[in-house]
Each structure stands twice: as C-alpha cells, then as structure tokens.
Amino acid sequence: MAARIEELIEDVLKEQIRTKEANVKQLQSQINPHFLYNTLAYIKSMVELEEKEAAVSMTMNLSRYYRYTTKLSSSFATIQEELSLIENYLDIHRLLTDDFEYEIDIDPALLKMEIPRLSLQPLIENVIVHAFRKPVKYGSVRIRGTLEDGGLARLTVDDNGTGLAPAQLEALQTKIRTAPSDQIDAGLHNVHQRLMLLFGKSSGLFLSHSERGGLCAELVWQVQEDKEAE
C-alpha cells in the first residue's frame, strides 16, 4: 500500500511538471509586440541614417534572442546559456535607450549547471519594465551567482530602481505563489513553480528590498547531480 501511494504521488508530481513545462512553451511562443516593434523601428532608423554597425548589432542581438526564446526542444539550459540570452536582451535595450548599465558576476562553478530554460529572463524583464522610472536618472542592474557549502545555489538580480512599497512587495509575492494577473506575473510565477517542483519546496523565487534602493529577486535551489550539465 505504501509503495502504491508513493507511486501515485510521483505520478502527480510528474503531471504537475508536465503542466508547468506546457505553460513555459506557451510563454515562449508569446512574442512581445512592443519590444519587437521598437527594435525593428530602431533598425529602420539606423539604416536610413547609414549607421551600419548599429543596425547590424541590433539585428544580431534580436536574432539570437528570438532563436533562444522560441526553441522548444529542451526544457533545460546551462546558466551560461541563460546569461548569454540576458546579455542579448539587455544589449538590445541599451541600444534603444542608453540610460542604464548592467554587471554580471557569477561563480564559475555555476556556469555549466542546468536550470529550467527562461528562468532569468522574467526577472530581468521585470526590472526593465518597472524599475527604471522617474526619479531614477540612470539605472543599474546587477546579476550575481553563488554556490554555497552544501550545494545551495543562488542567482540574484537586484537594481537601483524605484522599488516597491512593503504592501506592493507582499502583493507581488502572493501573486507569484498563487494565480498571476498579467504576463510578467505569470512569468515570475512560472519560474517559482518550476524551481520548487524540480528542486524541492525550499527552492524557488524570493523577493526582498534591495540595499541599492530597488528590488532584489533571488532564485534559490539545491543543486542535484542529475541537473548538472555533462
């Protein structure tokens, strides 16, 4: 009887993971039209101004970004691959509006480890969409990764943006753990659920106030040998 119960629980968890992966594929297929329109308009303007290098740079970044986000053949990616996507995404936005900087500092031991695809992108998108509003004159995004004793991995994204009031932060944390209300909330919710289901209930996405004035979003999970890239 105990073995049967354990088998049923395992089947339920597998079904939950399959459901979450289906949600990921749905999110991957959603192309943000405003983002695409703005980048295409930029390319058009650079071509008209005969700024060839700028047009080529934007085209290459855009191509790499969409090639990665629409790839559905694998549910996992190395942290190095995730960071390459983030650099493409941030470089695109810096070409559109050069009013922020970013810094990446990752423990080399993390780079070949695998996590669910598109785990970092929703966090960075949240910063770009919400953090850098007035009165912030020049934004700063910092992405850090550490591997602690005992195999606890952390990927942290923090910014110097406008941040959230305590009530707003609590409301966003609730949305992440329950029913999301918009696309960005859905992305954050999906990241949290996938990490928790794959790596345990102590894993997931955790939000707090950043010492730099904005928001601190942290991905935390217990490293498992079968989730490390060969």
The count of helical stretches stands at 7
Overall pLDDT level? 83
The unreliable regions are: none
How large a portion of the residues is in β-strands, by DSSP E? 15-25%
Looking at the overall shape, the CATH architecture is 2-Layer Sandwich
Largest sheet: 5 strands, mixed
- Which structural category fits the helices and strands? alpha+beta
Helical content band: 40-55%
CATH class: Alpha Beta
Order of adjacent strands in the largest pleated sheet: 2-4-5-7-6
Q: CATH homologous superfamily?
A: Histidine kinase-like ATPase, C-terminal domain
Span from first to last CA? Answer: 38 Å
Radius of gyration from the CA trace? 19 Å
> What name does the CATH topology carry?
Heat Shock Protein 90
Number of strands: 7
Give the SSE order as H and E letters.
Answer: HHHEHEEHEEHHEE
Shape: globular
Domain tally: 1
Organism: Cohnella rhizosphaerae
GO cellular component, one term: membrane
Pfam families: His_kinase (PF06580)
Domain Signal transduction histidine kinase internal region: 22-96
Short description:
InterPro entries: Bact_2-comp_sensor_kinase (IPR050640), HATPase_C_sf (IPR036890), Sig_transdc_His_kin_internal (IPR010559). The chain has helices at 2-28, 33-48, 52-69, 79-96, 121-131, 166-177, 183-199; strands at residues 76-78, 100-106, 114-116, 139-147, 152-159, 204-209, 215-222. With 230 residues, the chain is an alpha+beta fold.
